[in-house]
Amino acid sequence: MRPANLSHPASHPASHPASHIATPIIEASALTKRFGGERQMFTRTPTVHAVNEVSFAVHTGETFAIVGESGCGKSTLGRMLLRLIDATQGRVLYQGEDITHWQGAKLRRLRRDMQIIFQDPFASLNPGMTVGQIIGEPVAFHGLASSGSERRERVAQLLTKVGLQPAYAQRYPHEFSGGQRQRIGIARALAGEPKLIVGDEPVSALDVSVQAQVINLLESLKAELGLTLIMVAHDLAVIRHMSDRVAVMYLGEIVELAQVDELFDAPLHPYTQALLRAIPASSPHERRTKPALQGDLPSPTAPPPGCRFHTRCPHAKPRCVQERPLSETLPGGRQVACHFWRDVQNAGGGTPLVASVSTKLNERLAIYREKQNQTQAVPSAEANR
């Protein structure tokens, strides 16, 4: 049994994401998830093609982001990686071992290493339990405390770690603000000393200033505890601020995967380009050089043939309708799934965002950095308000 200690053991080292010699901490191999399709009397329910043959690897110590519009399958993908949802096809490998079909005691042991921070801090905490019970439950489940007093001590340490007062252990979730509740959720995720945490839109329900506090807290904890983070998000400012690499999803498929600076400075896939141009401008008088993304996301019950983006792509050609593009790996590991991405680049489609469009993104990033500096100066002052 491990002592009540919040410094993760030496088996949790952080490594630079550029050093990909070691076995990935988590890997998706042709992961596919379909919902529905069950027969009911004389009909079948529609089949939802949520995730389609997605493959990528996440390396120890990096922050890997999965970004896309609502309904693109990114949350489903995150839950499949954690084995909270079973895959229809494909495999999930954790530290090189296939965990796709683990059950029972093996899966329960895995839960200690892999945790999730949920999107809604108001719905993800049991209103009938005190904060001490919420955080202490995984401590007891994983055998990390030999007595009630040791469990309470560990809860106090975890609350302090996320910038909250230990006395809050006696209170109930309804007594806290949204930002404080999300900190409680983070403390609960840390209780088992995980190696990998998936954040499923962890700040989307919070206002910008509170978002900045929570994001900077996650970055600080990652550095201190040697965590690997997978951030599921649609907010591009959050992604740019804290990610090492980004996977862009569209209608259940990854269309581009790149280092964060590469992706934002020179996006290759037409969908990535449109997504970045959709960042709101700071003023209604500012104009974009090109239109933002047009039309609605097609239904996942009837995804378009060929390239799934062809119904909204300004560069679509007949081949895009007929043939699904395979993901092409470029020098440096960058990936893009588009038949004509080189033509788009030659036409100037991948040039960086113009200043008038990226101003709003830069404003958000400035807020995050300002809060980061404030947090470093006074670690828990705002968290306990």
From TrEMBL:
InterPro entries reported in the protein's UniProt record: AAA+_ATPase, ABC_transp_ATP-bind, ABC_transporter-like_ATP-bd, ABC_transporter-like_CS, Oligopep_ABC_C, P-loop_NTPase
Annotated ABC transporter domain residues: 26-276
Single Gene Ontology BP annotation: transmembrane transport
Alphabetized Pfam families for the sequence: ABC_tran (PF00005), oligo_HPY (PF08352)
Molecular function in Gene Ontology: ATP binding; ATP hydrolysis activity
Family annotation (SUPFAM superfamilies): P-loop containing nucleoside triphosphate hydrolases
Biased composition (Low complexity): 1-20
Region of interest (Disordered), ranges: 1-22, 280-305
Domain of life: Bacteria
Keywords, ordered alphabetically: ATP-binding, Cell inner membrane, Cell membrane, Membrane, Nucleotide-binding, Transport
Sequence similarity: Belongs to the ABC transporter superfamily.
Protein's name in the database: Peptide/nickel transport system ATP-binding protein
